[in-house]
Write a structure and sequence with these properties.
By secondary structure, this protein is of the alpha/beta class. Helix 4 packs across helix 5, helix 4 packs across helix 8 and helix 4 packs across helix 9. It starts with a strand and ends with a helix. The longest helix has 19 residues. The strands form two sheets. A seven-stranded mixed β-sheet has the order 7-6-5-8-9-11-10, with helices on both faces. The protein has a five-stranded parallel β-sheet with strand order 2-1-3-4-12.
Length: about 280
């Protein structure tokens, strides 16, 4: 029986990246659907759960993606609301790589040194990856700050993660390079989660900081987020700090993404969101 991955995307055009990784993760066929919302998802879910007998339902799985994490979470919840005993399939959420990218980055940082009790700053952390990374750092026992260009956006991101994970995060407004340099002054761990091609820190903002121990940057598009590092850095030492570049932990992100897809087809009742994906990333790392 064919392994079918139903790609439910909240954007107008389904993600090609997610389609490719779906195949690489073991799907025999990926069926992509765009522009999905909680209000129009029911017929697609019914098509997924009613078509195969119980012993074969594990061969159908749902992947929820798109660029908007809030919309993805709502869709993810709506999909599950249409399940009932005996009629459900496994489902995964990874809007804009929010779970797999964040999980890979934080797992690599955790493999490089203890996070418990550390002060961590997620720069430009209001996007999908930044918010989930901040929550994962907090779950590892770090005291976490999210920076944004406005206090309102930083506070909203912290509130989002409090509501979803029950973690307390600190919002900080940091508009300029110098503001962000000040925000990391007392930090031991920094994760840069800014938009592609946006520089967040220059070398002088971190290289001589005696408190910093580890830095990671999710931006793979020049100019990368943290000046003075290389996107290929794989836990290398620079200026006495351990550095992870976007490509450096990107291999783990892809491995985690593929492993999650493969896992979906082992059972028809799995729910893969942040927590199990992060645990898997730490196992693989």
């Amino acid at each position: 029986m064919k392994k079918l991955l139903l790609q439910f995307d909240t954007d107008a055009i389904p993600s090609v990246f997610d389609t490719v990784v779906g195949y690489d993760g073991g799907a025999d066929h990926v069926c992509s659907y765009a522009g999905l919302t909680p209000s129009n998802i029911k017929p697609l879910v019914e098509g997924a759960v009613f078509t195969r007998p119980p012993k074969d339902k594990k061969n159908t799985a749902i992947f929820v993606g798109g660029s908007d994490m809030v919309a993805g979470q709502l869709l993810f919840n709506a999909v599950q609301s249409h399940f009932f005993p005996g009629f459900q399939v496994s489902v995964m959420l990874d809007s804009n790589g929010c779970n797999t990218t964040a999980a890979a980055a934080i797992a690599k940082l955790a493999s490089s040194g203890p996070l418990q009790g550390k002060t961590a700053v997620v720069l430009a952390g209001t996007g999908p990856v930044g918010q989930r990374a901040a929550a994962m750092l907090a779950q590892e026992g770090a005291n976490v700050t999210i920076t944004a260009r406005t206090m309102a956006r930083a506070k909203q991101a912290c509130d989002n993660m409090k509501a979803r994970f029950g973690v307390d995060l600190n919002p900080v407004q940091a508009f300029t390079h110098d503001d962000r340099g000040h925000a990391i002054r007392d930090a031991q761990v920094v994760f840069a989660a800014g938009a592609a091609g946006v520089r967040l820190l220059e070398p002088e903002h971190w290289q001589d900081n005696p408190n910093l121990e580890m830095l990671a940057d999710a931006n793979a598009t020049p100019p990368i987020g943290i000046g003075g590092i290389d996107l290929m850095d794989r836990g290398v030492a620079r200026s006495g700090k351990i550095i992870w570049g976007a490509i450096g932990f990107g291999a783990l992100k892809l491995a985690v993404h593929r492993a999650c897809i493969a896992k979906l087809f082992t059972d028809n009742s799995l729910t893969l969101d942040s927590e199990p994906i992060f645990q898997l990333a730490k196992q693989i790392a």
